[in-house]
Amino acid sequence: MKFFADTAIAEDIRELNDYGLLDGVTTNPSLVAKSGRSFVEVVGEICQIVDGPVSAEVAATDYDGMIREGRFLAAIANNVVVKLPLTLPGLKACRRLRQEAIAVNVTLCFSANQALLAAKAGASYISPFIGRLDDLNLDGMALIRDIRAIYDNYGFATEILAASIRHANHVKEAALAGADVATIPPAVIRSLANHALTDKGLEQFIADWAATGQTIG
Ligand code: E4P
């Protein structure tokens, strides 16, 4: 499963990229607002840091506006993926931008039927929002499993990008459900490396080694 960082904070992206853990980045208008920077400037910087796909979302909701903004965003760098909302105009814009060989991430997906439409529109990625469904006492992970089954039934090439991930267990469950990609907040990516027994074991090894008085190198 590929890991995308779900953030517009360049410092976090740089750090995670340096660990070799990043396959790409997703942003959305709320994440860009949190960064406190200009959208175009921040997307340009992120595209320089990571080689992989960087999702940048349109603000327009009408077809012509989405096409205009999508073309503009795609021209920022060749790893930009244009993020479009899962609406009928968004699906029409998806089809058009894909015909122009522009990569598209269809976002705000909350049902398997929506995901089916995005695949039929030729989306490069579909973003089902797990956490926001869980927030409503629905089963976000069941949506990932349903989309996986439907896409496999028909051989759709659209990649399932598990989004709205809130904790480490979401990452494991998304991997078990067969998501192609998980977009994960930086703090959650870091937390995946943590285990109390790792810390305890390391402490013991360091103490035992120090007792021998040996050195390496
Ligand atoms: C990413 O593409 C989504 O916009 C993001 O994962 C949404 O996460 P949230 O539901 O925690 O805001």
Short description:
The protein contains 11 helices and 8 strands.
Please give a structural write-up.
It is a single chain. The protein is built from eleven helices and eight strands. The model has no long low-confidence stretch (mean pLDDT 97). It is of the alpha/beta class. The protein has one domain (2-192): Aldolase class I (TIM Barrel). Strand 3, helix 4 and strand 4 form a beta-alpha-beta unit. It binds erythose-4-phosphate (E4P). Erythose-4-phosphate is lined by residues 6, 26, 28, 107, 127, 129, 131-132, 163-164, 183.
Which terms summarize this structure?
217 residues, alpha/beta, TIM Barrel, eight-stranded parallel beta barrel, 52% helix, binds erythose-4-phosphate
Present the secondary structure layout.
Elements (H helix, E strand, L loop, with lengths): L1 E5 L3 H9 L5 E3 L2 H7 L3 H11 L4 E4 L5 H12 L5 E6 L2 H12 L4 E6 L2 H9 L4 E4 L1 H6 L4 H15 L4 E4 L5 H9 L4 E4 L1 H6 L4 H17 L5
Parallel strand pairs: 1-2, 1-8, 2-3, 3-4, 4-5, 5-6, 6-7, 7-8
The site of erythose-4-phosphate (E4P) has 11 residues, from helix 7.
Tell me the domain tally: 1
Would you list the SSEs in sequence order as H and E? Answer: EHEHHEHEHEHEHHEHEHH
Q: Pick out the low-confidence regions.
A: none
Strand order of the largest sheet: 1-2-3-4-5-6-7-8
Give the termini separation: 37 Å
- Quick one: CATH superfamily? Aldolase class I
- CATH class reads Alpha Beta
Helix content: 40-55%
